[in-house]
Structures are given as C-alpha cells and as structure tokens.
Specification:
Elements lengths: L3 E4 L5 E3 L5 E2 L12 E5 L2 E6 L3 E9 L1 H16 L4 E5 L3 E15 L4 E9 L4 E9 L9 E2 L15 E2 L2 E5 L7 E6 L2 E2 L2 E4 L2 E4 L3 E2 L4 E5 L4 E5 L5 E3 L23 E6 L6 E9 L9
Antiparallel strand pairs: 1-2, 1-7, 3-6, 4-5, 6-9, 7-8, 8-9, 10-23, 11-12, 13-22, 14-19, 14-23, 15-18, 16-17, 16-22, 19-20, 20-21
Length: 277
C-alpha cells in the first residue's frame, strides 16, 4: 500500500508507510467478511461489523514510541482515530496493542493490534450547487423576441444533475446556506424538506448517517431541528429526509434562492485495488 495514515481523534496524523515506520503492504486489512443468517436456500440480514487484525510493521524506536503515546490516548479516551488509505478511503478504528517479534540495532519488527469499527471503507465526494449561479442554476428564458411582453414567455429553469457513481446507495450530509425559509430540495424522486427559517450566515445540516438535522448560526451555536424535518412514512416514501442517494444520475431541483453542498459517502467492503471513482 502506497499511503496509509492514522489520524488521532484530536487531529494528529501519523504516516504508517514511511522510512521510519511502515506497515508495508498492510495486506492484513485488505480483506473483508459479511455476517449473515442462513435460512432455507438463502441468506438473510447481511451486515458488516467491526473487525480485528494483526498488522505487521517495521519501525524505528522513536517513531514507535510516538505512535504508542498517541494511540493509547485515543483508547483511554474511548475516542477512535481514523485510518486513511490511498489518501481518500477512510474508516474509524484504534490501534489497541503492539507485539514485538525482533529487535535489531536500528529497527523493531512486530505487529499492531488494529480494530476497524465501521465494517466498510468510505470515500467522501463533494458537490456544490450555487445560489443564482450560471454554473449550477442556468436559466433559459425561451424564445428571444425583439419586443417585450408583460410576462416571461416560455420561461423554465435548466435542471441540475447529480451523478452517484457508486454501485451501492450512499449516505450523505447536506449543508444548506442561509438565508432561506422552509427549504426543499428534490433529488430524483425524493424531496428533502425542512420547515424552518435559516438566517443569513447560518447553516442547516442534514446528516443521514447520524439521522440528525441541525441549525448552526454564525457563532457556532447549534440547535436541534429534527422535529422540523419532513420524514413522510419513512424510507421510500418520496419525502423522507434521510433517504439515501441511489446509484445513477438524478435531477436536482430547488427554488434557487440559496446554495447548498452535498457530501456523499461511497462505500466499499475493502480498500479498492484500482480506484475507479
């Protein structure tokens, strides 16, 4: 593996593939396994949970001591760090122990005890849609007549697109920028609607992984507005605020009076050998 880092819960990043400390190919964390029940001629309730691994390393003493102190703090605080592979694929986890195999004058050989908590690796893709922007809010006024009418003849708004390149549905985070009132954004067949006023310089944040809807003002104060979000009759009802994004190309429409970002998470069972996203 060319790149693998461990970032502590307080943001300190340590390379696990360097001249001073290296897990080399880290093949131990590249496999995966589904858990499921077996019924009559089929499986049911497939899921991926945490996994534990012994990952071989070679390291200099100073770097190994540095890593141990930082990872021990995450364990004691019960606050997981983040493993990042190939600079893009991430999973929460811990380094919970070290086994020493060989000590030489310059290097120590051994293995880390690694626990990966999420059962999958995630890549974040960000897409922005701008308020009154020609890039993402192009307007077509129909035929260009040489004289004026009292109304807009043949007016329409060019729809925007969102292409989800994953083979699985994607959870996401949507950040809506104020000011706006009762924002509704339709992606494909689902309408994401929150009946709330978002003041200027405030953010409305919808997180489908954590199932939260929050309003954050310019001072950082956060308000829970979950009860203002429209949830329909749940998943598949076409108005469920936490509806995952489905693979493929979707039309995105809104009233264009505000901008918003979508950060969606492509999910893979293991770190791809060839990243096609």
């Amino acid at each position: 593996m060319n790149e693998l880092t461990y970032t502590t819960s307080d943001g300190k990043a340590i390379s696990l593939v360097s001249d001073d400390l290296s897990v080399q190919t880290a093949q131990e964390i590249r496999g995966y396994e589904w858990e499921f029940g077996v019924g009559r001629k089929n499986i049911y309730a497939p899921r991926r949970t945490y996994s534990t691994h012994k990952v071989k390393f070679i390291a200099k003493r100073e770097e190994l001591d540095k890593l141990r102190k930082l990872t021990d703090r995450d364990v004691v605080n019960e606050s997981p760090g983040t493993f990042t592979a190939q600079d893009t694929w991430q999973q929460k986890g811990y380094i919970t122990g070290i086994t020493i195999d060989t000590v030489s004058p310059y290097y120590i050989f051994g293995s880390f005890d690694v626990i990966l908590l999420q059962g999958a690796w995630y890549k974040t893709v960000s897409v922005s849609y701008f308020k009154n922007s020609k890039l993402n809010s192009a307007v077509n006024y129909g035929k260009d007549y040489p004289f004026d009418y009292k109304y807009d003849y043949g007016y329409n708004r060019t729809p925007q697109l969102l292409n989800i390149g994953s083979h699985l549905s994607c959870e996401f985070r949507m950040i809506i920028y104020g000011s706006c009132v009762n924002p509704v954004i339709t992606i494909g067949e689902n309408a994401y609607r929150v009946n709330v006023r978002v003041p200027e310089n405030s953010l409305l944040i919808i997180d489908t992984r954590d199932k939260t809807v929050t309003l954050r003002d310019d001072t950082g104060y956060t308000q829970n507005v979950f009860d203002k979000a429209v949830r329909g009759s749940g998943k598949g009802s076409k108005e469920y605020i936490f509806e995952p994004l489905q693979p493929g190309e979707h039309i995105v429409s809104w009233d264009n009076s505000y901008g918003f970002d979508i950060e969606y998470y492509i999910e893979e069972s293991c770190i791809p050998w060839i990243d096609t996203y």
